[in-house]
Write a structure and sequence with these properties.
Blueprint lengths: L1 E8 L4 H17 L4 E9 L2 E10 L3 H10 L8 E9 L3 E2 L2 E2 L1
Antiparallel strand pairs: 1-3, 1-4, 2-3, 5-6
Amino acid sequence: MLYCVIFADNPGQEHLRQRHMADHLAFLAKLGPQMIGAGPLFDGTEGHGGIWLVEAGNPADVQALVEQDPFWPTGLRKNVQILEWRQVFRNGQRV
């Protein structure tokens, strides 16, 4: 199944993002094709969190991935929301 994972960051903790970015990116790369996409969210020029699109068996598997992310134990993340995503369009075509 596909899951959309929406992260909100704690205000004032942006320094943690830069400190742990290399480890975070290495972690995402290790997930290989399971990680469909990932990236930051912005409100204008200010970062406010991020989104993952990930393939997993169930929400508990996704939560386990979230907790393995080097960002997780740092205090950067305010919260995380895990939602099943059902894709109906890709490249302008219905799937």
